[in-house]
Amino acid sequence: MKPTIEFRKDIVSGDWVLISTDIQKKPVFFKRIKTKPFPKSRCPFETIQQSKDRWVHVFPNKYPVVARSNICPPLEKCGIHEKKIGVGFQEVVVTRSHERHFALMTRDEICLVLEAYQSRYQALASEPCVDYILIIHNHGSRAGATVPHPHSQVFAIPIIPPDVKRSLEGSHNYFRAHRRCVHCDILKDELKEKERTIYQNKRFVVLAPYASRVSYEVRIFPKFHESRFEVIDQAQRKDLSDAMSFVFQRIFKKNKNPDYNFFIHTAPPKERHAEHYHWHMEILPRAAIWGGLELGAGIDVVKISPEETAKLLRR
Ligand SMILES: [Zn+2]
Ligand SMILES: [Zn+2]
Fold it and tell me: What pLDDT score does 63 carry?
């Protein structure tokens, strides 16, 4: 593949990234830092799990970053700044096996995790001051996981996170200009070109985004327009777990079990005018270490092009 050096604009967020693959020798990605394996005997999730016959357990995070409360914090002035007290809910979704992460789970097991995400999402959405619910999964210590036992987190917070806000605004602006969903347009284009698509089934498509922010970034989209993750039905869950199983297995094998984060971007629960939004899942392997260009200018330098990523993971 010909080397690529170009700035790419993400039409949803408006952010520029630099795709630069013209390097003599590719850096070694995903080289594991040698650490002593965390023994299962000391795993906090082994004792906490009461029922051994259930695949998924949900409980409040023991060390939350938000204060558990259903009181709506008012917007406060702090000099020229504004603030809100950090209330919210932080729950942990734990799967039974200490060793089997997403690449090693069956499709049915992934389906059960998705069901748990949805049911917690729906429960927390009814809390009075919850403005956004973020579902995240950290795999590996470099991705921020403090416990190696596979677990996801559900954060319910009284603000719309900046990345989500920008994604919503970008989608809304595109809709106002074209009267169409930006992600539906992207999918139409990607499915025609097939250069960056990795996998598809009846209801979902996996692709390497045109303006990827990190090497090997992957996103999973529902093929048919849907604003909200929490309303997907059993058939959609099945196809989504199928897509997830495929992509996590590929990432695991091709990239030698890299650390990664994934999260779901969906319309905020109380937002009434979010029909333009198209929910999706973003998977970001942790490879690059940020330098000055990233931190000082907010321009991500991506050394493996999205086209190469798609080619590698498709094979
Ligand atoms: Zn464990
Ligand atoms: Zn759409």
Answer: 79
Counting ligands in written order, the one closest to the CA of 12 is 2
Q: How far is the CA of 98 from the centre of ligand 1 (A)?
A: 4
In a domain, 40, yes or no: no
Q: What's the structural domain count of the chain? A: 1
- The per-residue pLDDT for range 91-128, each reduced to its tens digit, is 999 999 999 999 999 999 999 999 999 999 999 999 98
The CA 224 to ligand 2 mean position distance, Å, reads: 7
CA distance 48 to 51: 9
Distance of alpha carbon 85 from alpha carbon 73, whole angstroms: 6
Assigned domain for 34 exists:
no
- Going from the Cα of 278 to the center of ligand 2, the distance in angstroms, rounded, reads 5
Q: Which ligand is nearest to the CA of 45?
A: 1
Which CATH number is 151's domain given? 3.30.428.10
| Residue 141 included in any domain | yes
pTM, 2 dp: 0.89
**Ligand sitting nearest the alpha carbon of 280:** 2
The token pair that represents 167 in the structure block: 């994604």
Contact 211, 307 (CB under 8 A): no
